[in-house]
Design a protein that fits this description.
This protein has 275 residues and is of the alpha/beta class. The chain has helices spanning 32-43, 103-112, 155-159, 174-178, 180-190, 217-226, 242-256, and strands spanning 7-13, 20-26, 49-51, 69-73, 89-96, 124-133, 136-145, 164-170, 200-206, 230-233. The chain folds into 2 domains: 7-84 and 262-269, Roll (Ubiquitin-like (UB roll)); 89-256, Rossmann fold.
Length: 275
């Protein structure tokens, strides 16, 4: 039975440019070595050190927010490129939308500047991007989610404690736009208590490079306006519009100084053994 205190972090290999992350459930009740082993097993490595986003070896895991990054080292010092800027802002984003609209392709185009042509259904994967927007370093953790209806019971977990959402549809498929309404309603319900200090939501019309377009710019923009979101047209195939979309999210989050959902600090765990 899972410990009720467990929460999700994202484990990365300790490299200068981390990209693929593994979602891992940890508990602040666990000793440090157990957290290190759990993260190492998820990454398929034999880790010896664990670092937080500031490049420090944590003495306590009780105050780490949901969605934070932990970096696993084989014994070497912290290597992540953002380590020189310990004040770098960190945000957690989530990709939502129906199956096969290109959520993974959009994410990987942004993170790795590559195009994933073959559709490989995703349950959930975290990606890391250290971005420089207007000269300021920002660390992004991006949760890529499944669009298949079988996984819809996981939506509440996916949308919890996030700073921003990208609602993705395919301009080739009108119903994929209609399905975004349900995702947006879930977000509104979860963050209703935060009002205009809630997460940033944008709508992305993907596959604008396609010759089989059936959803017009005006239709996509009308939907986005209706839910109070910015609208972007993008192509995972050629990268058009993707950097601008994520940069816009970062700029708005900085302006709002958003914290996604209230994080309860777990001071009562700090005295637990971390040996």
């Amino acid at each position: 039975m899972a410990d009720s205190a467990e929460f999700r972090i994202v484990a990365y290999k300790n490299t200068k440019n981390p990209s693929d992350g593994k979602p891992v459930l940890i508990s602040p009740l666990w000793p440090k070595q157990q957290i290190l082993k759990t993260c190492s097993d998820a990454l398929g490595i034999k880790g010896k050190k664990i670092f937080n986003e500031n490049g420090e070896e944590p003495k306590s895991f009780g105050d780490i927010p949901e969605g934070s990054a932990l970096y696993i080292s084989l014994g070497e010092n912290f290597e992540v490129k953002a380590s020189s800027n310990k004040q770098a802002k960190s945000f957690v984003l989530c990709m939502l939308g129906a199956a096969a609209v290109g959520k993974s392709a959009v994410t990987q185009r942004y993170v790795k500047n590559t195009f994933v042509r073959d559709y490989d259904p995703t349950i959930e994967d975290y990606y890391k991007k250290v971005a420089t927007v207007d000269g300021e370093i920002t660390s992004l953790s991006i949760l890529d989610t499944a669009g298949m209806e079988d996984y819809y019971p996981l939506i509440d977990d996916w949308i919890d404690k996030k700073d921003g959402f990208v609602l993705v549809f395919s301009v080739e498929w009108g119903d994929s736009l209609n399905r975004l309404q349900g995702f947006n309603e879930k977000i509104l319900h979860r963050y209703a208590q935060l009002g205009n200090k809630g997460p940033v939501v944008v709508v992305a019309g993907n596959k604008i490079d396609s010759l089989n377009r059936s959803v017009s710019y005006e239709t996509g923009k009308e939907f986005a306006d209706k839910i109070g979101a910015k609208y972007f047209e993008v192509s995972a195939a050629n990268g058009k519009g993707i950097d601008d979309m994520y940069s816009s999210i970062v700029k708005e989050l900085r302006a709002r100084k958003v914290v996604a959902a209230p994080v309860v600090k777990k001071h009562w765990y700090e005295k637990c053994s971390l040996l």
